[in-house]
């Protein structure tokens, strides 16, 4: 049982860190570098000249979807002893989020196909905007997932409460910010300002939790031989 839990912690930690690296490449480097939401023509030229890089970005998004599904199961395996129903619900929310993200990625494939078909720049940018829109809706769900993780972390005796509260704060920001983008789109600058302020806890919450999971797994791995010798 303890070995299974250690494996779930190790798998979750590694997958979460891999997802962060892939997201940094797919969105932070490829998406932000090639796409200018204020210039359809510039975006179109970038995608024409860097089509292979854009395809690599899409592949990274696909890998993130797979890892999201993997993390949903492994975190449930690690946290189910705290509260089985809440853990299962939290995992289910992440699974639904993964499929919403997959639906968003379809629009990136559509944009790539439009560029290859020499469609207009505005049509290409519209597909890219659909990706952002669908993904933003998915991030509302992702926020609820983090809220569930936070509650489980706070309720459990094993996880430091700091991570539980940080996950709760990050989940609240994710859900609140992306609900605002959907419901009050006219307040773009205000929402962007709040998102900038909240970016640190939003980014650090899952990454910090991932490193704690790895620490927990490695600590148990090395403590078992010591316990056997004593």
Descriptive tags:
mainly alpha; 7 helices; 89% helix; 0% strand; globular; transmembrane; transmembrane helix
Description:
It is built from 7 helices and no strands. With 230 residues, the protein is mostly helical. The chain has one domain. Helix 1 packs antiparallel against helix 3, helix 1 runs antiparallel to helix 7 and helix 6 runs antiparallel to helix 7. The longest helix is centred in the last third of the chain and has 42 residues. It is globular. 37% of the residues are buried. The C terminus is likely disordered.
Percentage of residues assigned to helices: over 70%
Sketch the topology as an H/E string, one letter per element: HHHHHHH
Structural class: mainly alpha
Largest sheet: none
The total number of structural domains is 1
- Summarize model confidence as the mean pLDDT: 92
Summary of the model, kept short:
By secondary structure, the protein is mainly alpha-helical. It has one domain (2-224).
